[in-house]
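Good day; I would like, with your permission, to put a structural problem before you. A protein sequence and the structure tokens that stand for its backbone fold form the material at issue. The record follows directly beneath this note:
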Amino acid sequence: MFSQPQGWFRLREPSRAFSAIVRKDGSTVWAEDASGKTIASGEAGVDDASVIQSALNSLTAGRKWRETVILKGDFEIRNKITLPSHTTLNLSEAYLKLGDSVNDHMFYAEGETNIEIIGGKLDGNKANNDTTTYYRLLLFVKCDNLKIRGVEMFNGAYGITIQGDETGGVIHSNFEVAGCYMHDLDYDGLYYKTYLENCKAMWNYVKSVRRGFACDNGCKAVKFAHNVVEDASFWGIEAAGLNAESKDITIKDNALISASLSVYAQIANVRVISNHFENCSVQIHVEDDKMPDKEPKQVVFADNTIDVGGGRKLIIQNAKDVIVANNYIYSSDYYGVDVPGGVNVKIFSSRVKVDKWYSIRVRASGYRNSSNIEIKDCTTETAGDWDIYVENTDIITIKRNNILTKGIYLGAGVTNAEIKNNRGYATENSGTATFSGDGTTTQFSIAHGLVKAPSKVLVTPMTADAASDFYVTADDTYIYINYLTAPASGTDNLKFSWYAEV
């Protein structure tokens, strides 16, 4: 009789998909390996952290592949847990709460690589810990290749901090935080801190924090995308470079609700694209006393909406090489776009509406005048003073805009201003005019439709009766053709072409 195949032909039971697992059962917490052998055990609620640490320490020494530790149950963490390299920590069926008066990080790694954390709930128990000790639920220092996915972090000081080498001697790289929920934290949801590269935060929800997301001081190639940040008391997202230049930052497809955006100080090549901002502001800025060394530059702000709420909506302060394009900006107060001390700022094809003051204001900061400003193809509307208000600006072009309400104001200190072809604010006009002479009338008027009296007027007679001796004057409303001798009587015998320019 044919017997069942043996050896490598035989169908085998799949190996267990972990190297260690930690469980709880009543008063006992224990860890076991994939074969079911006990690694460590202890009293539940007292020894949870030490048993979890034993499970992590039991993984293959010197490995170059990731091994998995699974936690199942509710755990009280009374001591900081250290994560080793090449580890997946699966918390999908776990709830971890920081013990009373621990005042330390829940999970920590330094100088490690290739760590992944999946799922779970991390409770910082801030009612019974001192958040001014700045403890983190997850802290990584000088690590590389981290993935954190689907973790809920709440009720603590910080959620996640990933910190590089503060001297900049080594650049640490490759970090991804995705699908996490961070809320009710006294400080940051996620903080990429100093000299990191290739950092991503995507599809996360952050609520009721001081800062939602942040990167600073030498961070490069950072992407914040498809996130929601709500109710951030300081910034929803902050990208900064106060002590070292950060660059190549992408902020795309996020929703910030009562959570403002800051692009701050020494930072370059920033793309803020297709975001929704509600009840908050956007600031591309640095203070006067940090200029010129900390100037933000090369920022594109495009295809965004800023909607509802008071104050200044988009502030470009002491920034250089900024493009603002295809945005919708609405403020129930003050300014839609405010440019103090901006250099090489282009505002294109955006709709800006405010209920008070100015749709767009360009002015000096405390450090310098604004210069090389272009405002083109925008639609502006205000229930306040002016659609566009300019003062203390060197070289400004305002062209082809749709000025719906209060016009354009040029104040003190404006040089080299070019204002042309704006609908609702005519600075040049032309046409033809026809009159009938009666033999006695010596003055004929043409409504020029300009915003004020023209400085340049050209009137050309087009008929013989019109070609007599005359001179031209103008005021804020009319061009006047003044004859020295009344032209002859006739029907439509006086025809002129005319051009006027402010």
Notes: Residues 48-57 form the longest helix (10 residues). Helices lie at 48-57.
